[in-house]
Design a protein that fits this description.
By secondary structure, the protein is of the alpha+beta class. It has helices at about 10-30, 40-50, 115-130, 140-150, 225-235, 250-255, and strands at about 55-60, 70, 85-95, 100-110, 155, 165, 175, 195, 200, 205-220, 260-270, 275-280, 280-285, 290. The structure holds manganese (II) ion (2 copies).
Length: about 300
């Protein structure tokens, strides 16, 4: 029986389906990450997979590499190919009518194995965090488990990047899931959807803002006065998107006029220029623990 405070979404099928598609898109991205592959082409392949499987991208594919921790998506004319030895984070989101799944994994491009320890630290941090999920349980238990697993590899979690609760059309809802213990006394609620996402680094364990990237988001509804802008808001709501997706000339022009209505995300880089690995799953807080929504098996 559901507890009185349970928060299960009414359309759980949508959340599960979005999770499955996001997980498959993540695996596709990892498999395509070869030397010479353009980051732009990789993003388009992953986002196209999501669109072809009954969902929409919940945000532009984040293809951050090396000391870039998050929020790098290529522009429409991004010329950079992947290189052997790049440490690439494939962080993808899918949504179905606002039911969002967010998932990531890290691959070392080109079959070298210099950073296996970093990749494993992030993955083991994620697995430990998922095991610590309990309905009604403290978020800090998850944070503590993540931190211990990353430390066990002799590495640092990035303390100012966190997991997060997810609500309809809201990728980062009210709760944070820190990757370091001692930052929160809040609890998980049965039926809640949360993303757990450890970042492991051989740097100092925090991030700095890099240059502004190509990911933007409406701060609020721009209203109907500008029809092209209204069409864009109808399409993306408050979810992150990128100019690469705006191919209609009238809408592209509206986007140019709307700068003040948009939040632009900076690329996050490791503050000590350490290299960064990330692993992320979206999970449903079930009656007996986490149900991983973005698993592929
Ligand atoms: Mn996330
Ligand atoms: Mn993510």
């Amino acid at each position: 029986m559901k507890s009185p405070t349970s928060r299960y979404p009414a359309d759980l099928d949508h959340w599960r389906a979005a999770g499955r598609v996001a997980g498959e898109a993540r695996e596709l991205g990892l498999s395509l990450a070869r030397p010479g592959m353009l980051r732009r082409e990789l993003a388009e392949r992953v986002e196209g997979y999501i669109r072809d499987h009954g969902a929409a991208p919940a945000f532009p594919a984040n293809l951050s590499r090396n000391s870039e921790a998050a929020h790098y998506t290529p522009s429409a004319d991004d010329p950079e190919p992947l290189q052997a030895g790049d440490l690439l984070k494939v962080d993808v989101g899918a949504h179905i009518e606002g039911a969002i799944a967010d998932t990531a994994a890290t691959v070392e491009v080109g079959g070298t194995h210099r950073y296996d320890n970093l990749v494993r630290a992030a993955r083991e941090g994620l697995e430990a965090g998922i095991r610590a999920v309990r309905p009604g349980g403290p978020i800090d238990a998850v944070s503590r488990a993540v931190e211990a697993a990353v430390h066990a590899r002799g590495l640092k979690p990035i303390r100012d990047l966190t997991g997060h609760s997810i609500e309809r059309y809201l990728l980062h809802a009210g709760k944070s899931i820190p990757n370091v213990a001692g930052f929160t006394d809040r609890r998980l609620e049965e039926g809640e959807v949360v993303a757990i996402e450890p970042f492991a680094t051989n740097g100092v364990g925090s991030i700095a803002n890099g240059p502004f990237g190509h990911i933007v988001r409406f701060r609020s509804d721009p209203g109907a006065a500008d029809p092209a802008l209204a069409a864009l808001f109808h399409r993306f709501r408050t979810l992150p998107f990128t100019a690469r997706w705006v191919t209609d000339p009238a809408e592209a022009a509206a986007l140019g006029r709307a700068r003040r209505l948009l939040q632009t995300y900076p690329v996050f880089v490791e503050a000590g220029r350490g290299w960064v690995a990330q692993a992320e799953h979206t999970v449903l807080v079930g009656a007996s623990g986490a149900e991983v929504l973005t698993a592929t098996r």
